[in-house]
Amino acid sequence: MEPGITVHLDEVSALAAELAALSRELDDEARMCRSTAGRLSDALGGTDGWRAGALATAWGALAAVVAARAGTVAATLVTATVAYRDADAVLAGAVAGRSGRPG
């Protein structure tokens, strides 16, 4: 017998929901970092202020990238889960139709 893979669709759905929530949180953090960058630059002034502002801007950009990718993975998992459930329903309907029993 060949090894198989078992996927628990409810757990995949829960993971997708967690990733979507993480994506939203990271997106909020990215906005906060970008808005803080100017305040840091002004508060510190000079080279140190510029560096702190640039770092906050870069950190915000990184958080935005991670947020977008987490959101993409979440959407992919949702799409895959729906597709598997739909395929399973079609298969169950076909099996029920062949057996002469209602599904």
What is the compact description of this entry?
It is built from two helices and no strands. With 103 residues, the protein is an all-alpha fold.
Features:
2 helices, mainly alpha, 0% strand, 87% helix, 103 residues
Per-chain topology:
Blueprint: H1 9-44, H2 46-99
Helix pairs in contact: 1-2
What does this structure look like?
The protein is an all-alpha fold and 103 residues long. The protein has one domain. It has 2 helices and no strands. The protein has helices at residues 9-44, 46-99. The mean pLDDT is 92.
Could you spell the SSE succession in H and E letters? Answer: HH
**In DSSP terms, counting alpha (H) and pi (I) runs of 4 or more, how many helices?**
2
Helix content: over 70%
Largest sheet: none
Strand content: under 5%
Count the E strands.
Answer: 0
Average pLDDT, to the nearest integer?
Answer: 92
Q: Are there runs of 5+ residues with pLDDT below 50, and where?
A: none
- Overall geometry comes to rod-shaped
Q: Indicate the structural class.
A: mainly alpha
